[in-house]
Amino acid sequence: MKNHITPKQAKEATEEQFYSFFNEIVPRKDWTNYHHRKMDIGKMIDYLDEVIISRSVIDGMWNIVAFDKHYKGKELTDALWEAMKDDVEN
């Protein structure tokens, strides 16, 4: 199981959007390669606050319900990251 997002996933958000998830974070030139590890499962669940998490026994996909929307991912981290990105885009 993946515990945090990948640098490639971090690049799906702007640097400003990514930093908005944290109270204090030191800006870095290579922020995606360094800070992606800080976006772990616990951080995302804490940020999303009210989230429903389930796993399908049929296809093994993780299902997340947050902000009255449904997100799906092969990994729990991927589904949570989709919800996180959706929150900063709205």
Please tell me about this protein's structure.
This protein is 40% helix and 16% strand. The chain is α+β, with helices and mostly antiparallel strands and 90 residues long. It has one domain (7-89). The protein has a three-stranded antiparallel beta sheet, covered by helices on one side. The longest helix is centred in the C-terminal third of the chain and has 14 residues, at 76-89. It starts with 6 loop residues before the first helix and ends with a helix.
Concise overview:
With 90 residues, this protein is an alpha+beta fold. It contains 5 helices and 3 strands, in the order ααααβββα.
Q: Which key features would you list for this structure?
A:
single chain, 5 helices, alpha+beta, three-stranded antiparallel sheet, 90 residues, 3 strands
End-to-end C-alpha gap: 29 Å
Major beta-sheet overview: 3 strands, antiparallel
Strand order of the largest sheet: 1-2-3
Query: Portion of residues in helices?
Result: 40-55%
Describe the global form: globular
Q: How many strands?
A: 3
| Overall pLDDT level | 93
Low-confidence stretches: none
Helix run count: 5
Our estimate of the beta-strand percent is: 15-25%
Topology as a string of helices (H) and strands (E):
HHHHEEEH
Tally of discrete structural domains: 1
What is the radius of gyration computed over CA atoms, rounded to a whole number of angstroms?
A: 13 Å
Question: What structural category characterises the helix and strand content?
Answer: alpha+beta
